[in-house]
Amino acid sequence: MNTDNLQIQIKTFFGLEEILAEEVKKLGGRKVEIKNRAVNCEGDLGFLYKINYSCRTALKILVPIKSFKAFDADRFYDRLFDVQWDEYMSIDQSFAIDATINSERFSHSQFMTLKMKDAIVDFFKMKYRDRPNVDSKNPDIKFHLHIDRELVSISLDSSGDPLFKRGYRQMQTEAPINEVLASGLLQIAGWDGKGNFLDPMCGSGTLLVEAAMIAMDLPAQIFRKKFAFQNWKNYDAELFTTIKEFRINRVKEFTGKIVGYDIDLKALNVARTNIEAAELEDVIEVKKQNFFESKKELFPLLVVFNPPYNERISIEVEDFYKKIGDTFKQNYPNTLAWLITSDLEANKKIGLRPSRRVKLFNGKLETRFLQYEMYEGTKKAKFDNQN
Question: CATH 3.40.50.360: does it fit domain 6-157?
Answer without folding.
Answer: no
